[in-house]
């Protein structure tokens, strides 16, 4: 039987993952184009290693218009003293770098949605090549993976850290212990609309402790949401023993997304007028929002009602909505 070796990744790192100390470099991904014939995408990466201990992989801007992760991780890479570290921290503050530079969810190069492109392909699009490098070269180095998200330009969330229900209950418990250590104002047992192609699923299938977040959104970040990201990252590093000391535990409310009833999708185009704000309690049958047709006056709005009891955990932004857009997410408070 003829077996062929897997195609190598075209990504060239300028950092040595086995070296001690702090290294600031790039993942250089060749990208030939009109304005740079032999050009590259240069994804910033920082490796901080010292002594012996576990490895944490910390990633931001998997979606390019989500800013808490990049804000916390550029700061961490610039400020962390390697003498405080036992183990290794791999920091990639802006993973889908072309999307991050463009301020868009997906890549301007290939429209690639990085968090729907895993496990990726070494011979695929630019976005698929980034995913493949993460899958085959970064995640295998890690004991714990933290991938930051928030709502981007079209959603806004209650600030939460999250893990998923997993077939391996020991792994699942370790993921939720890490979520508790992160200590965001809310902690979620998260249900994905479609988990195929996500970094989350890839890291979980590789047996890693995986934590994700949704820390806000609307295409920006606040002082409060950046502080949650910064504190949560340090807490997770303390939890794993990479940094000394105990996590700084803050009060959290545990939430659950028990079924697809938690999602409401718009079936109409129009102006969305919410009747509840993030964190507000909501009962099944309550109007979450009204969508007004905007082509003329005198037309009644369409009411979107909650399918379950809970709190409003996410909402559409900005003020206009289209059929098919996610209008809201309701979560139940479990604790
Ligand atoms: Zn995201």
UniProtKB/TrEMBL annotation:
Keyword Transferase: no
Cofactors (names): Zn(2+)
InterPro entries listed in its UniProt record: AstE_AspA_cat, DoeB, N-alpha-Ac-DABA-like, N-alpha-Ac-DABA_deacetylase
This protein's record includes keyword Hydrolase: yes
GO molecular function: hydrolase activity, acting on carbon-nitrogen (but not peptide) bonds, in linear amides; hydrolase activity, acting on ester bonds; metal ion binding
Domain of life: Bacteria
Record Pfam families: AstE_AspA_cat (PF24827)
Domain Succinylglutamate desuccinylase/Aspartoacylase catalytic: 53-239
Keywords carried by this UniProt record: Hydrolase, Metal-binding, Zinc
NCBIfam families: ectoine_eutE (TIGR02994)
Protein name: Succinylglutamate desuccinylase/Aspartoacylase catalytic domain-containing protein
Source organism per UniProt: Pseudorhizobium banfieldiae
């Amino acid at each position: 039987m003829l077996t062929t070796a897997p195609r190598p990744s075209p990504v060239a790192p300028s950092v040595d993952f086995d070296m001690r100390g702090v290294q600031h470099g790039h993942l250089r991904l060749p990208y030939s184009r009109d304005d740079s014939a032999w050009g590259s995408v240069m994804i910033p990466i920082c490796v901080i290693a010292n002594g012996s201990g576990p490895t944490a992989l910390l990633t931001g801007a998997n979606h390019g218009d989500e800013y808490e992760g990049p804000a916390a991780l550029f700061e961490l890479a610039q400020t962390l003293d390697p003498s405080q570290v036992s183990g290794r921290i791999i920091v990639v503050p802006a993973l889908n770098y072309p999307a991050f530079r463009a301020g868009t969810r997906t890549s301007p190069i290939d429209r690639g949605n990085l968090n729907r492109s895993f496990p990726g392909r070494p011979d695929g699009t630019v976005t698929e090549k980034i995913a493949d490098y993460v899958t085959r070269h970064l995640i295998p180095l890690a004991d714990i993976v933290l991938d930051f998200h928030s709502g981007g330009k079209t959603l806004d969330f209650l600030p939460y850290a999250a893990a998923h229900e997993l077939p391996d209950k020991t792994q699942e418990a370790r993921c939720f212990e890490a979520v508790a250590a992160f200590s965001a104002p809310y902690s979620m047992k998260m249900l994905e609309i479609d988990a195929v192609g996500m970094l989350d699923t890839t890291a979980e299938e590789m047996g890693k402790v995986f934590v994700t977040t949704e820390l806000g959104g609307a295409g920006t970040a606040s002082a409060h949401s950046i502080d949650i990201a910064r504190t949560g990252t340090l807490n997770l590093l303390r939890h794993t023993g990479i940094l000394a000391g105990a996590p700084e535990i803050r009060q959290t409310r545990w939430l659950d997304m028990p079924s697809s009833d938690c999602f409401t999708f718009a079936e109409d185009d129009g102006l969305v007028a919410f009747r509840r704000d993030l964190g507000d309690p909501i009962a099944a049958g309550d109007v979450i929002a009204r969508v007004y047709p905007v082509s003329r006056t005198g037309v009644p709005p369409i009411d979107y009602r909650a399918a379950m009891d809970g709190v409003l955990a996410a909402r559409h932004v900005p003020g206009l909505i289209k059929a098919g857009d996610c209008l809201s997410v309701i979560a139940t408070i479990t604790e």
